[in-house]
Amino acid sequence: MLTRRSLLKNGVAAIAASALPLVTSSMARAAGPDLAKHPLIDAHSHIWSPDTDKWPLEKGQTKADLAPPSFTPEELFAVAHPVGVGRVVLIQHHIYHGWNNTYLTDSAAAHPGAFSVVGMIDDQQPHADTKMDALLKKHVRGFRITPFIYKDKWLSSDGMSLMWKHAAKTGQSMCCLIDAEHLEEVGAMCAKHPQTRVVIDHFARIGEDREVRDADVAKLCALAKHKHTYVKISAYYALGKKKPPYLDLVPMIRKVFDAYGPERTMWASDAPYQIQGENTYQASIDLVKEKLDFLTAGDREWLLRKTAEKVFFSA
Predict the structure, then answer these.
(1) pLDDT band at 186 (very low <50, low <70, confident <90, very high)
(2) Which residues have a Cβ under 8 Å from the Cβ of 284 and sit 6 or more positions away?
(3) I want to staple 8 with a disulfide (CB 3.0 to 4.6 A). Which of 67, 124, 256, 285 is the partner?
């Protein structure tokens, strides 16, 4: 199966990069977002810098391994501002930066009010709770967790249990990059930690193999019984038919929306991966803005701003 990273590295990156101005972020302090012009929130984007001396890559990677070669805050804003997005939840990219969240926290500090951060902590190392506290002061409002690092031990460590327990106190979210097969495990953790906020990324990647299975959607919807669970409706480029206008995903979106309601669902792009070939940032947001006829104006306000604001930007 082609992964989003292999797609970008094998030619599609050239298409995506050609549409983006290559800008090296100096991390000079910028003005806050103009929420009158750009009121919406993208609940999920990655960024990285071509300045790999200042922000080194993991595992011996070099600038040549970045695909696209640059996606800085300025490049993100270049595609986000035209569609009304002024704030973004930045997601730690373990592939490039491992457990080092510095590029994201530096970006949040340099763009006050524009970014919230979902970081990563190695739960196999001690003192996860004190690390969470320290990162909270740097705009880290959630933590990405995934079985793709520690495999079947991903939820079983003492450190992971501590993270879930401590997150209930700090209000930080446990943000799950998972496949549908892991939803029941997440549900068990939700039952053990009922006050911990949990966010499921990208519909639990249902439809990544082009087939949106009803049984998988049912598992995702069943998780809604835990009142602090949320779902990002995102990454359309990677699901189902994988091309705009993404109408094949509407039945799944409707079921998720009916299960969770507008106050626990949020739109996200998954840029820059959403920006490749015929998939565009605007096509992603247009699905929610224009194609979901079952949404009211109030529903759209929750999906495009208020839910992410509540989860990632509220004190």
Answers:
(1) very high
(2) 234, 236, 237, 246, 267, 269, 270, 274
(3) 67
In degrees, rounded to 5, the angle at the alpha carbon of residue 50 between the alpha carbons of residues 108 and 271 is 60
- In 195-312, where do the E strands start and end? 198-200, 229-233, 265-267
- Counting DSSP H helices and E strands in the chain, the numbers are 14, 8
Residue type for 201, please?
A: D
Q: Are 8 and 14 in contact (CB under 8 A)?
A: no
Strands of the sheet with 85-91, listed across from one edge:
40-45, 85-91, 115-119, 140-145, 173-176, 198-200, 229-233, 265-267
Is it the case that residue 301 has pLDDT exceeding 70? yes
DSSP 33: P
5 versus 124: which is more confidently predicted? 124
Distances in whole angstroms, Cα of residue 128 to Cα of each of 68, 105, 167: 32, 18, 10
Distance, first Cα to last Cα, the chain: 41
Helix (H) or strand (E) holding 118: strand 115-119
Type of residue at 206: I
* Token pair 């991966």: residue: 273
With H, G, I as helix, E, B as strand and everything else as coil, classify residue 228. coil
Within 8 A by CB and 6+ apart from 210, the residues are: 240, 241, 242
Q: How many CB atoms lie within 10 A of CB 180?
A: 20
Arithmetic mean of pLDDT, 120-137: 98
Mean pLDDT, to the nearest integer, of 39-64? 97
Strands 229-233 and 265-267, how do they pair? parallel
Largest separation between any pair of C-alpha atoms in the chain = 49
pLDDT for 4: 54
d(CA 205, CA 182): 11
**Which of 100-110 are b and which e, b meaning 16 or more Cβ less than 10 Å from the residue's Cβ?**
bbebbbbbbeb
